[in-house]
Amino acid sequence: CFICHKMGASFTCSHLGCDHTFHLPCAPEGECVTQYFGAYRSFCWEHRPQQAMHTHPSQDDTCSICLDTAEHKNSYKTLECPTCQDARFHRHCIQRLALHAGIAFPSPCCLNQEPFLMEMLTMGIPLSKSLAFLFPHHKPSGTNAAITKPMVGPFDQRRGRCDATTCLCPGGREHTEHKG
User: Distance of CA 167 to CAs 3, 15, 18, 162, 175, Å?
Assistant: First the structure.
């Protein structure tokens, strides 16, 4: 893991040519982004998706959720509403809100849902339920690659085949167990 320097890192940056690997629990400390939809990609701090910066002279530098001071620039720790661009959020504040909101996750300020939701998913804000099946063909703007069809279906389904380049399971690629 390039963050904690311990063995067993299983996530590799999805940027072509980058060999940074990390543990999922180490990702926030290393400012890595994991996208929990579409192709379920992960990015190191160097290649993570970035929001476009919109500066407004009258824009308040407070988190619209907790009302504490937020950075004036978009960063890993501070996100902006892509639709109204007047709202800033601490990553941990919008994450808490997303986990409680589930599939109904509009912007807390302008109440716009789809563009806001897709931007937050792209920036690595997971929801309590996967929404990949709701937007299977959506392609985000910016530097992100196309999102593929979801690898899992609705909430209760999971993959039944190993897609690793080299499958290490003694039972082979098709082997599954009831609990995982």
Answer: 26, 22, 22, 7, 11
- CB neighbours of 140 closer than 8 A, spacing ≥ 6? 49, 118, 119, 122, 147
Kindly report the length of the chain.
180
Contact 23, 48 (CB under 8 A): no
Structural domain contains residue 126: yes
Which has the higher per-residue pLDDT, 175 or 99? 99
Please provide residue 120's backbone torsions phi and psi, each rounded to the nearest 5 degrees: -65, -40
Residue numbers of the domain that contains 59: 54-135
pLDDT band at 160 (very low <50, low <70, confident <90, very high): low
Query: Are 44 and 58 in the same domain?
Result: no
Question: CB-side exposure of 173: number of CA atoms within 13 Å?
Answer: 7
φ and ψ at residue 122, rounded to 5 degrees = -65, -35
High-pLDDT (> 70) share of the chain, %: 72
